[in-house]
Amino acid sequence: VAQGFARYYPEASEPEEKRAFASTCLAFVVGSYAVLAGIVVLLSNTTRVWLFGEQGSAGAAALAVAAIFSACLSSNLASLVRWDQRPRAAALATTSISLAGHLGSVVLVAGVGLGVEGLLAGQALGHLSGCLVCLVALRPVLAWTWDAARLRRMLAFSIPIVPSSLAVLAAYHLERVAIREIRERCPRRLKH
């Protein structure tokens, strides 16, 4: 729906129209990601093995879901901030994500000794800090409103783009799975 938002939001001239587009887009994104995260959590054993192999912990899988959910949400919120032409807020959100994410990961991994779980929790914290910055910046544009007609317009524009977006995501994540499989099957070849 984000591509449809980017297409129609700049043309909205009235504050109420902008608010309807922004609020509907955000509500749809949050709801969609929550449903997907719920499905992944319900399939946590499969998700754990797929992400980390047999040795992976359920806690790491849950934190991976939280990190992915928060990354997707912060990305969408940062896009809303950019399309609302708030460059300072966009820069602050990106800086916050980077600093809080890296600092949180270093503290949780090196300081507390949480390993993979610490890295994932640090990433989630970084993205959540970016979400907070974006939500504060978007206060004038967001409201508790839902506009089904505008959602249909945004989806009609966005849906044809979804297959190519999914292909990019699949290629990125399948590459990680392939590397893990190669490592497990041929550990000596990769060490040399």
List the secondary-structure elements in sequence, H or E.
HHHHHHHHH
Helix content: over 70%
The end-to-end distance, rounded to whole angstroms, is: 46 Å
Q: Report on the biggest sheet.
A: none
Averaging pLDDT over every residue, what do you get? 87
Task: Using the alpha-carbon principal axes, give the shape.
Answer: globular
With helices defined by DSSP (H or I, 4 residues minimum), what is the helix count? 9
Low-confidence stretches: none
Oligomer: single chain
Number of strands: 0
Q: Which percent band covers the strand fraction?
A: under 5%
Class of secondary structure makeup: mainly alpha
Q: Tell me the radius of gyration.
A: 19 Å
Tell me what the structure shows.
The structure is a single chain. The chain starts with a helix and ends with a helix. It is globular. It is 82% helix and 0% strand. The chain has helices spanning 2-8, 15-42, 44-52, 58-83, 87-111, 116-137, 148-158, 162-185, 187-191. By secondary structure, it is an all-alpha fold. It is built from nine helices and no strands.
